[in-house]
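Quick one - first record:
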Amino acid sequence: MNRRPGLSARLKLTISYAALLLLAGAVLLAVVWVSLLRYVPDNDQGLLGIAPNRYLLVRMFAPAAATALAFLFVFGVLGGWLLAGRMLAPLTRIGDAARLAASGSLSHRVRLGGPADEFRELADVFDTMLERLESHVGEQQRFATNASHELRTPLAISQAILDVARTDPSYERGELIERLRTVNTRAIDLTEALLLLSRSDRRNFTRAPVDLSLIAEEAAETLLPLAEQRRITLDVTGEPAPAAGSAALLLRMVTNLVQNAIVHNLPTGGTVRVHTERRRYASVLWVENTGLPLRPELVPTLTEPFQRGTERVRTDEHAGVGLGLAIVHSVVRAHDGMLELAPRPAGGLVATIRLPARR
């Protein structure tokens, strides 16, 4: 942004300090004049018949006063310049860090020492902002790299299938179409998941009254054939849990959770429980499933994009694109809620979602 040139903050503070000091000196001299010199008689005899008179005192006082004011001005300019520089030094450090951040170096921190004053608070807030920005940019870069790789994989597979079919005249046409259809379906699912994740991250949706219990029932009804196919018992219980948000996004959130609980379960005979309830300030939904035991250090990584939890049991036809829990986490965050994942001692996972309750 182009702006007209102006005085620096240091020069403005210097002028202010010098002007204030000069004004104080002038007021002090005026007090001396009013308090002393005006009572000296202005005649040849002077005070009590003793010289000097007011005229002579003024002639002696004026040069000394002018010298004193000149000294105060010079002292005010020099002292104000040094004092302003010392006071603005933290802002200079913050400005240097901001320029480094603008050039792409987000690892630099101000780390201002000293007592807890306004400058220290500003520096700490700036450091916190840089830390979050660095984390966010790193996350976005990793996401872009992983997304590019994931989107490239179906295209590469399609290209390989077509190359084989072109060089091999005996390649069966029906098999070719089916394999291309499978690869294309995966690419479409991945693209839709990325669009949904982007939409929830931007919070580009209209909030409306919703009931998590109804959403849970709808998601369970949709996924009931999958649960029956894997011989998994799907149980939905609870009470109305009113909240505010996007019904479509919340439905996708619950669907992902329930599908994740069905797919990453025991090979057969497992259970999935979905429960909703309303608490004082939050509407709670939790999904619990059986399965093999999970290592505690694995659980925090499950919400990262394209982290499929390779140690969890699943079938190949429902391997997914690695964005299920990432979408859940993004939707919960967009609705100002909290997502907690905890491994069950007997095996499996418990996912708890808390959204602000709608009164």
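second record:
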Amino acid sequence: MSDTTRTAMIIGGTGQIGSAAARRLAADGWSVLVAHRGEHHGDTELTEYDVTSIRLDRDDTDALVERARGHDLVLDTVAYEPRHGEQLARLAGDVGSLVVISTGSVYTGRDGGYLDTVTGPEDFPDYPLPLRETDPTVDNAERTYSPLKAALERTLLAVDDLPVSILRPGAVYGPFSPALREWYFIKRALDDRDRVVLSDSGANRFSTSSTVNIAELVTLCAEQPGRRVLNAVDEDGFSVAEIARAVYRALGRDVEVDAFPGPPQDGVGGTPWTVAHPLLLSMAAAKVELGYRQQVGYAEAVAAAVDWAVREVKAAERRQEDWTSAFPGLATRAAEDGWFDYAAEDAFLAAR
């Protein structure tokens, strides 16, 4: 490694965002240190690059800070709550740029509601369109996902000499995802379901975030250190019907979208992107401040995620296992939300 080689450390480096960022940075000539808990194998095809993998306990603050100090970039993909921000605050003056992944769910609707409090279509937040980084965010003491992420942001931004860029993605997707929403349609295609039922006329729109596009933003933030909050979403703004068609096309399949007006009926028609009001984030600030340009559109990016998911399932089958062993967390969510209740869908269609 030459004296001019830039160095990066990625906390949570084997997840979907960490893997994409490691690949992008390494391909650009960075020396990358991937820190992880050892629960995911990550991108095993990075051996041709200057990438080193270490196991690190996030709760061991002294070890984390010691390993992170001196890097040109520290990317934290798994920071979740204020105490993680307090850990990272110890890096002030010791890193070139800190990039922390937050979430678009920190935004509140016009009535002050946010995603964590939703019980049904009637109380879903009515968001400004598109959401900009200056729009209000949740600010309470609840210890659920969105309030904790918002509190993390405030903790980081309160440190004056910390060069931190906070990124707010939407529905993240890409290879190495432990919660790949696209599986909702991938499995249907693999099960020869050539007809999908969608509520709300198939028009639901929830900003998606390709890990490739997030990695581009990470790189730009590393090259232009600063204190900022930026949205990190695809610009396509695909509807759920368009997402279904893109996933099926990635598998070389055609699909008939059978959409009906109104909310899901007894669970039928709902998807991981189903929202009563659109949740769309603006990318204008990233373009102006960093010169950001989207690297891939949804249709192209999702093909890589689909390919990875199918390969993971085939590998499980060779081990005489099924898809639930490949994606255990996803299997739990699918069961709880009734993703694959084909009998209910068929009965609904027959009654129409």
